[in-house]
């Protein structure tokens, strides 16, 4: 048996609510208030409650009708004389009572028919409500079916995309493996290049040390060049002095030759003086040649400028020592 979904107290409370509202108590009305259940069983439980309530009350003795009581009293007085009349009257009263009972039964049957019609109306209303609920449920089911179909298609699409993603992931993994191999090769090349770079760095450091050594040697060479330049300048000064002396000797020789032409008597002396001056001049020329061989490093432009300066300095002295020429035939 199915378990009772609603208690008797709930059914009785629903029936009392319908009585308070002045409505007919039907199975469908009870079901509507209770919220579910079988209408027939709910009505049976309400009727059982009504019957138990009526059985608990004390039974009342039905008194005879007034007419019957009066007749009984009359019969008590006129029992013998009016027995036949009493029987007729009693029969008439019984028939009338039976008719009243029949009318009451017919009335009760009409009320039951009305009750049945009302229950049918409530049942039709409940059926309409149930049909509305069923239509809503069917619409919800259709909506859910459409949603399920959309989800199924989306799942299929996602499955296809997932397969594509797995294929792409596989390809990417293969590419990653290739890139890792290339990376290992690049690391090996980088290590080789690093070793070469270290070797080149050592060579560069050695070259820097060599350059520093050469720079130090260059500084020393420059110092030596400066010293040689100073010595050359000193030699140039001495050379200029010797050159001035040589020029002076040549001037004196020329003057002596001129005087020899003017004075035959002094010619021999002049020739002797000229020989002496030639010897001194040759000695000076050899000395100058030696100096020129020793200091050939000096640039020609500077040497020329130095000679010009020396010649400029010695020219006034030459002019001072030059004597005026004597005319031929003049006596000393």
In short:
It is built from seven helices and no strands.
What's the SSE blueprint?
Layout: H1 8-21, H2 27-34, H3 39-56, H4 66-77, H5 83-262, H6 267-294, H7 300-321
Helix pairs in contact: 1-2, 1-3, 2-3, 2-5, 4-5, 5-6, 5-7
Structure, explained:
- By secondary structure, the chain is mostly helical.
- Among the domains are: 1-51; 230-321.
- Helices cover 85% and strands 0% of the residues.
- The chain contains 7 helices and no strands.
- The chain has helices spanning 8-21, 27-34, 39-56, 66-77, 83-262, 267-294, 300-321.
- α4 (66-77) runs antiparallel to α5.
- The longest helix is centred in the middle third of the chain and has 180 residues, at 83-262.
- The protein starts with 7 loop residues before the first helix and ends in an 11-residue tail after the last helix.
- 6% of the residues are buried.
- The model is unreliable at 297-332 (pLDDT under 50).
Describe this protein with a few key phrases:
single chain, 332 residues, mainly alpha, 7 helices, rod-shaped, disordered C terminus, KfrA_DNA-bd_N, DNA-binding, coiled coil, DNA binding, DNA-binding protein
The poorly predicted ranges are: 297-332
The helix/strand series, from N terminus to C terminus, equals HHHHHHH
Question: What is the distance, rounded to the nearest whole angstrom, between the alpha carbons of the first and last residues?
Answer: 188 Å
Based on helices, strands and strand pairing, what is the structural class?
A: mainly alpha
Largest sheet: none
Strand fraction equals under 5%
Rg, rounded, reads: 82 Å
Biased composition (Basic residues): 322-332
InterPro entries: KfrA_DNA-bd_N
Domain KfrA N-terminal DNA-binding: 7-125
GO molecular function: DNA binding
């Amino acid at each position: 048996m199915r378990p009772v979904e609603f208690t008797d107290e709930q059914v009785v409370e629903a029936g009392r609510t319908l009585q308070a509202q002045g409505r007919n108590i039907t199975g469908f009305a009870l079901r509507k208030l209770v919220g579910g259940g079988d209408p027939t069983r709910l009505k049976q439980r309400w009727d059982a409650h009504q019957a138990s309530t009526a059985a608990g009350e004390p039974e009342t003795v039905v008194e005879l009708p007034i007419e019957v009581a009066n007749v009984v009293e009359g019969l008590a007085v006129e029992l013998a004389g009016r027995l036949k009349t009493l029987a007729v009257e009693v029969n008439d009263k019984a028939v009338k009572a039976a008719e009243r009972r029949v009318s009451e039964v017919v009335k009760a049957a009409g009320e039951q028919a009305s009750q049945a019609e009302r229950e049918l109306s409530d049942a039709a209303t409940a059926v309409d409500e149930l049909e509305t609920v069923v239509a809503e449920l069917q619409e919800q089911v259709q909506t859910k079916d459409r949603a399920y179909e959309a989800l199924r298609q989306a799942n299929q699409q996602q499955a296809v995309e997932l397969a594509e993603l797995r294929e792409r992931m596989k390809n990417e993994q293969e590419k990653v493996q290739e890139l890792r191999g290339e990376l290992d090769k690049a690391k090996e090349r980088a290590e080789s290049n690093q070793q070469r770079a270290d070797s080149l760095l050592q060579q560069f450091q050695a070259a820097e040390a060599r350059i520093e050594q050469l720079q130090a040697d260059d500084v020393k060479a420059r110092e030596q060049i400066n010293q040689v330049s100073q010595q050359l300048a000193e030699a140039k000064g001495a050379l200029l002095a010797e050159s001035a002396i040589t020029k002076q000797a040549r001037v004196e020789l020329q003057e002596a030759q001129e005087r020899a032409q003017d004075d035959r008597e002094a010619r021999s002396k002049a020739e002797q003086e000229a020989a002496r001056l030639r010897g001194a001049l040759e000695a000076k020329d050899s000395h100058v040649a030696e100096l020129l061989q020793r200091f050939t490093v000096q640039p020609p432009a500077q040497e020329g400028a130095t000679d010009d300066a020396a010649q400029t300095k010695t020219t006034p002295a030459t002019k001072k020592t030059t004597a005026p020429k004597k005319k031929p035939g003049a006596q000393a």
